[in-house]
Specification:
- It contains 4 helices and 62 strands.
- It is mainly β.
- Among the domains are: 157 residues, no CATH class; 90 residues, Immunoglobulin-like (Sandwich), CATH 2.60.40.10; 80 residues, Immunoglobulin-like.
- The strands form 10 sheets. The chain has a 26-stranded antiparallel β-barrel. Strands 3, 4, 5, 6, 10, 11, 12 and 13 form an 8-stranded mixed sheet that branches. Strands 47, 50, 52, 54 and 55 form a 5-stranded mixed sheet that branches.
- Strand 1 and strand 2 form a beta hairpin.
């Protein structure tokens, strides 16, 4: 919402409240659930409450949903009573996770519409409990034709559906919708640029990354361009993708990483995939931006969340590899991570708050999860590529030779998947075999072995799981000398063998504590030989206090403590490597906060700081932090400010003179400017976008409210007008009257307006339109605005208002509209174009005219058009109510 004129929309508030309630429930598997039917009878949203202590009451659990090998965004409610042989499943949450419609029949049965037909569950077959209706898992599986299995190790309901292969078939509909607005066949639809410029005295450095995407012919294209400000622009990626049912083609230049053990490489050429489950495999492209992603590969794209405006720093061996400002949506993304498989266990992402210029608030370890490597039963994919090695469109890339690969993956059953890869890069050849398995209570495990043409080998094993409060992660990897020789290994000596292990096993103690044992070893040329076994713990003894201690990849402890002594006060203590920081914060009001910090850095010294932060509500408001620093008898300062300049364009400025590092009073401050433009490129202008690296079959619809506005009305009055898709409200117009609907699958959608928030003088012309969506394209559909005015008044002294009518007669003498007065005699006529009219007071039965008034409409709604018997018409208007 933008500005003080932002409207509170009850419908959006209800949706937000229901989602928050559901999110609370999913955070605690040991808690029970109860239904909140205010969100509608077809799907209960759950809020967190305690289970009854009575042994007679069944226990309700929330489990993750793994649908055809992919985790659903919807958790599934399960029920088990004391004497039940199996779990029961909530049909409402199951239908939601499967994206199927559920309804209640006249007989009280529940009906679920599947792509194969209707599945019906009678009232006698269901058990109602706390707002949901449950059926036994075997019955649900038999009736729906699915395989349903509760995996306690993963705490997930594993679902294999028989209709996943029908996803490429045409949608069932009685009659195709006619297309009113066609999608473009060639377009630039998405644009994201980020520019970072830093000055430190005479040293100025600037970098830029630009991502572009759009439609072209029967497919879609995507590009990434680096630099272009201080140096010549370099094309890092340029691809064109064509989807043809089970087949998928890619032509162009892209970095390829098809296996968690083999080194990645840049390929300029062609790639092709063929599978019997395109909807499942190809829809996972958002995980990596690859044609057929390998879900567990952590070294191509890394995503996460952090504080808006903070810093995400990708580190290898504690040294920064890449750094970026966290977006206003709280997300960060590192693309084309410059590391090889040998680096995986030592990669970490440090998250810094806006004011933490030295000590991160947390450090996330990067490692694979074995459960991500599995395919649904019967799913297979054949994936191949060939061409030239390197980025041949980038003149600075010195790579040479050819490159190619072939991969085959197969889901043997719901618990076992196998994998085989051959790969060649500039004369170096690799082969790999692997398997991923779900071992029930032992969790999910995967193992891979590889060998290259020089005879060097490599292997890795990874596993994870949890059961009854226990959890574990394990990772072990060995690479012979020269296994990855010639690849980008982030400055490691590839001629030496490397070996690393990481294992953690622990237990959650209720919802307030976790304790674990962490064991790690590392042997390589950069770090020598390391081995450690240490405890890790997270503890929240009271609601306002949390404590944490964990070793990093080298076994060195990082500590953090956070305490809220009052609702508006916060105290924290953090230690990371050789730095420790203490901070105390206090919220003066919802918009302003004060902060005091003390930093100690070993062998460097101490620094104190006092900050004032302004964080107003809304992305279009300016937020800033101003601070004073003191260290080593020197003073410094800190300033950071940012805002969204317009929808899709944001800027952030950081100025730091650190007396701990820049001790001299004449030293120049470090100034950093970060500008991010993220737009959906539309025919009606630039709208706020949301660029995604994903190679996925989606497009968008964009448009604007067009037309001249009457004097006194600015474009900002066109904000918050609802836009519906197939009759359901999906988005709202921004402060300029533009809208964008993204992530729509190819097809035809009916787009309309919900004009409740339009100014009273305006009306949207035209009915809803049938709009075509194509992959990669933004289809433009504008709604013209017309000036529509009206009049209002009151009838007094002419008898019963129910026996009267108000007629509006146009200048040509024809009836334009007729309205009925209220029981109090008030009337209102809307939707009139500017012009001259005559208002007639008539009898309802005979249409006899009792009185008339002239009416002239220019650019305003006219009130006070009263019919009062015994007084001149229109004189002494009565007080008008809100109509």
């Amino acid at each position: 919402m933008n500005g003080p004129a932002a409207r509170i929309r009850p419908r959006a508030t209800l949706r937000w409240a229901a989602r928050c309630a559901f999110a609370l429930a999913t955070c605690a598997l040991g808690q029970a659930i109860a239904a909140d039917l205010s969100a509608g009878p077809s799907y209960p949203y759950f809020r967190q409450i305690a289970n009854s202590a009575s042994r007679e009451q069944a226990r309700l659990l929330l489990a993750a949903g793994m649908v055809d090998g992919r985790e659903s965004k919807t958790s599934i409610a399960l029920r088990r009573a004391k004497d039940d042989a199996d779990y029961g499943v909530s049909l409402e949450t199951l239908a939601k996770a499967l994206d199927l419609e559920i309804s209640t029949t006249d007989a009280g049965a529940l009906a679920i519409e599947t792509p194969l037909g209707r599945a019906t569950f009678s009232a006698a077959e269901t058990t109602s409990d706390r707002g949901a209706r449950f059926v036994d898992l075997p019955l649900a599986a038999a009736r729906l034709g699915c395989r349903l299995r509760f995996d306690e190790g993963e705490f997930a309901l594993v679902i294999d559906t028989p209709w996943r292969d029908l996803a490429t078939a045409p949608a069932r509909q009685a009659k195709p919708l006619p297309i009113d607005v066609h999608a473009p066949k060639a377009s630039l639809s998405r644009w994201r640029s980020e520019v970072v410029s830093q000055s430190n005295g005479n040293d100025i450095s600037t970098s830029a990354v630009t991502d572009l995407g759009g439609a072209l012919g029967p497919g879609y294209w995507q590009a990434q361009v680096l630099d272009g400000i201080d140096s010549r622009p370099r094309i890092n990626e340029l691809v064109w993708v064509l989807d043809k049912g089970p087949a998928r083609w890619l032509f162009g230049q892209q970095r390829v990483a098809i296996n968690p053990l083999l080194p990645g490489f840049d390929l300029s050429g062609a790639q092709m995939a063929y599978t019997n489950s395109p909807e499942y495999l190809y829809s996972q492209a958002p995980l990596s931006g690859q044609l057929v992603p390998y879900a567990a590969n952590p070294l191509t794209v890394l995503r996460g969340e952090g504080p808006p405006g903070g810093i995400a720093e990708l580190q290898l061996d504690g040294q920064m590899l890449m750094r970026q400002t966290i977006g206003l949506d709280g997300r960060y993304e590192f693309r084309n991570v410059p590391a090889s498989p040998v680096n995986a266990i030592r990669l970490e992402v440090a998250i810094f708050e806006f004011r933490d210029i030295d000590v991160p608030t947390r450090v996330d370890r990067v490692y694979s999860q074995a459960s991500n490597l599995q395919l649904p039963e019967g799913t297979w994919v054949s994936f191949a590529g060939a061409g030239l090695n390197g980025r041949r469109l980038d003149s600075s890339d010195a790579a040479r030779g050819s490159a190619g690969f072939y991969q085959f993956r197969y889901g043997v059953n719901s618990s076992l998947s196998v994998d085989a890869v051959v790969q060649g890069v500039d004369g170096r050849r690799y082969g790999s075999l692997g398997a991923a398995a779900s071992l029930g209570p032992l969790g999910a495990w995967a193992a891979y072995a590889a060998r290259n043409s020089a005879g060097a080998g490599a292997w890795n094993i990874l596993g994870d799981g949890g059961r009854n409060g226990w959890f574990w992660h394990a990772y072990a990897q060995h690479l012979d000398a020269v296994f990855i020789e010639g690849q980008d290994t982030a400055d490691l000596d590839a001629s030496a063998a490397t070996e690393s292990t990481f294992a953690e096993i622990g237990r959650a103690i209720g919802s307030s504590a976790r304790i674990s044992v962490v064991h790690g070893t590392l042997s390589d040329a950069a770090n020598g030989d390391l081995e450690y076994t240490k405890l890790a713990a997270d503890w929240r003894p009271i609601k306002s206090l949390s404590l944490s201690a964990r070793p990093d990849y080298r076994g060195e402890y990082s500590y953090s403590a956070s305490w809220y002594p009052a609702a508006r006060a916060h105290v924290s203590l953090t230690r990371y490597k050789d730095r420790s920081e203490t901070a105390a914060e206090y919220d003066l009001n919802p918009a302003y906060r004060i902060l005091a910090t003390h930093l100690h850095q070993q062998d460097v010294g101490d620094r104190g700081g006092l900050f004032l932060k302004r964080q107003p509500f809304g992305v279009r408001r300016a937020n800033w932090t101003l601070g004073a620093l003191s260290a080593n008898d020197s003073l410094g300062y800190y300033f950071e400010g940012g805002m969204e300049l317009r929808p899709g364009l944001s800027a952030r400025l950081n100025v730091l003179k650190d007396p701990l590092i820049q001790g001299s009073s004449t030293a120049s401050p470090t100034v950093t400017l970060n500008v991010v433009a993220d737009f959906a490129v539309t025919g009606s202008g630039l709208a706020r976008g949301g660029y995604n690296v994903a190679l996925q079959q989606v497009g968008g619809i964009s448009g604007a409210l067009a037309g001249d506005l009457p004097s006194g009305l600015g474009r900002e009055t066109l904000a918050h007008v609802g836009v519906s898709v197939n009759g359901q409200l999906r988005t709202e117009t921004d402060g300029s009257g533009r809208f964008y609907l993204g992530d729509l699958k190819p097809g035809v959608y009916r787009i309309g307006l919900e004009p409740d928030n339009l100014p009273i003088e305006l009306s949207a012309s035209g009915a809803a339109r049938n709009v075509e969506v194509r992959s990669g394209a933004n289809t433009r559909v504008d709604f013209g605005l017309e000036l529509r005015l009206g009049c209002a008044g009151r009838v007094e002294g002419h008898g019963d208002p129910a026996a009267l009518r108000i007629a509006i007669i146009g200048s040509n003498g024809e009836l334009v509209t007729q309205v009925r007065p209220s029981t109090s005699g008030f009337y209102r006529a809307d939707g009139l174009a500017p012009g001259s009219y005559r208002i007639e007071l008539r009898t309802a039965d005979t249409g006899t005219t009792l009185a008339t008034l002239p009416l002239a409409l220019t650019d305003r709604f006219v009130f006070g058009q009263d019919f009062r018997k015994g007084a001149p018409a229109g004189a002494a208007p009565a007080k008008q109510p809100d109509l």
